[in-house]
UniProtKB/TrEMBL annotation:
One of its GO terms (molecular function) is lyase activity. It comes from Priestia filamentosa. SUPFAM superfamilies: 2-methylcitrate dehydratase PrpD. InterPro entries: MmgE/PrpD_sf (IPR036148), MmgE/PrpD_sf_1 (IPR042183), MmgE/PrpD_sf_2 (IPR042188), MmgE_PrpD (IPR005656), MmgE_PrpD_C (IPR045337), MmgE_PrpD_N (IPR045336). Belongs to the PrpD family. The lineage of its organism: Bacteria, Bacillati, Bacillota, Bacilli, Bacillales. This is Uncharacterized protein. Coiled coil: none annotated.
């Protein structure tokens, strides 16, 4: 089977908004992405990137979220991608094992600023992008992530490029070339987790997706079979050079944006620590022990369940986004799991001295819950104090599909990020009626 061609044909003939569940989840996804981006508007990395593009110069026609500034469509995709992921507050998808919206939406927003695009087509392209990214995640296999690739970047570049091609209704043949230009630009190392470069991967992916589309549109020379064969994307980056069943099975029957669905975060740190966060918060508010009496804390995972949590002895809040030890220590000390404690500044001394009491263990004897998200995951937090052990287990954290955030909770996330109720209502109202908008102008104007 010609994988690249088949994928292009399926995307070209898709009409996802016939499914109202996809439409409603897409609108929630836009709200969450913008809330995450507005929350990061003062991030130091954003200011560095703004300085960089000011030195580059260029035509300014695409808004940069929360900055009251514009840049060209490649520069804006880069910064808006970074913004969405800067605080690790943006959505995740278990099939992706990464963050779809912070790559797909910045690319689509840039393109929508330069084209006459309806809100319906924009939302449809977003659904398509999530669909492709989730199916790529399933098809590429778990070894891709375990080897050290950052799925948000590698899979996101291809998915966002396809979403952009769909937005512009390009031909099947053009889609094939777009995929090729995107695939040859994929990259991103998990070694960068805990640094400013991790969210920059999302910006790179959004920018490169747009570049892929533009190269195809000018008929630049490139392969039309980048996903195929022994030297194609799956052979190079994954386990199976021809994973067609996972990539194409039941296409369009249920859209991945709602099944299994996007996971909207309530905490600004890696989702792999959210189970532990919920468990530790519950333990801390039961008041069954005093923190000064705690002698040991065990955090149990299934094997590989903590792969993204690369920091065990963080020095800053930024590193703490990828440290379950830091998250649990904060929660047990009844400190807020909010933005303030995950900034690039030294962690509190009381937390730092508590970290050595925490250990990770891996349990093969624990039966995963059938409702667990991601599938097969769990986290058990055990606190030993005064000779007693206090335990909480979480399989389905708050925000994950099956325990998701309501529309009202997402609106509150936006309100908290903006600290401007009038603007919050204006943005959310515009998103809620986006499928009826002939252009994207009104939404773009309030970014």
């Amino acid at each position: 089977m010609e994988i690249t061609k088949k994928l292009s044909e399926l995307v070209y003939s898709s009409y996802p908004l016939k499914d109202k569940r996809a439409l409603e989840m897409a609108k929630l996804g836009v709200i969450d992405y913008l809330a995450s981006s507005f929350a990061a508007r003062d991030d130091e990395g954003v200011q560095k990137l703004l300085k960089l593009i000011e030195e580059e110069g260029g035509y300014q026609n695409v808004p940069i979220i929360g900055q009251n500034k514009k840049a060209n469509f490649l520069q804006s995709a880069l910064i808006n991608g970074f913004l969405g992921h800067a605080l690790d507050y943006d959505d995740v998808h278990s099939d992706v094992r990464g963050h779809p919206s912070t790559v797909i939406l910045p690319a689509l927003l840039s393109l929508s600023s330069c084209e006459n695009v309806s809100g319906e087509r924009f939302l449809s392209a977003y659904v398509i992008g999530v669909e492709v990214m989730a199916r790529l995640g399933q098809a590429i296999g778990s070894d891709h992530y375990i080897k050290g690739w950052h799925n948000t970047a590698t899979l996101g570049t291809i998915a966002a490029s396809i979403a952009c091609g769909y937005l512009k209704n390009v031909s099947v043949e053009t889609f094939q070339k777009v995929i090729g230009f995107a695939a040859t630009q994929t990259g991103g190392m998990r070694a960068q987790f805990g640094t400013e470069t991790k969210p920059l991967h999302a910006g790179f992916a959004a920018r490169n997706a747009l570049q892929a589309l533009k190269l195809a549109e000018i008929n630049f020379g490139g392969t039309k079979s980048a996903l195929d064969g022994d030297s194609g994307f799956f052979a190079l980056y994954g386990e199976d050079p021809a994973p067609s069943a996972l990539l194409f099975s039941r296409w369009g029957e249920e859209w991945k944006i709602y099944s299994p669905g996007l996971w909207f975060k309530i905490y600004p740190f890696c989702s792999a620590a959210h189970h532990a966060a919920d468990a530790a918060v519950r333990l801390s508010y039961k008041n069954e022990f005093r923190i000064e009496d705690v002698t040991n804390v065990k955090i149990s995972f299934p094997k590989g369940g903590d792969a993204a949590l690369v920091e065990q002895n963080p020095q800053t809040g930024e590193q703490g986004r990828f440290s379950v030890e830091y998250v649990v220590a904060l929660a047990l000390h009844k400190k807020a799991l909010g933005l303030e404690n995950f900034k690039n500044k030294c962690i509190d001394s009381s937390i730092k001295t508590f970290l050595p009491r925490i250990e990770r263990v891996y349990r093969e004897d624990v039966e995963p819950s059938p409702t667990a998200v991601p599938k097969g995951r769990f986290t058990i937090v055990e606190v030993e104090a005064n000779g007693a052990t206090f335990t909480e287990r979480v399989d389905l954290p708050k925000g994950a599909p099956g325990n998701g955030l309501t529309f009202e909770e997402l609106q509150e996330k936006m309100s908290s990020a903006l600290q401007d109720e009038e603007k919050t209502v204006k943005i959310v109202d515009e998103i809620q009626q986006l499928e009826r908008s002939q252009t994207m102008g009104k939404l773009l104007d309030v970014l």
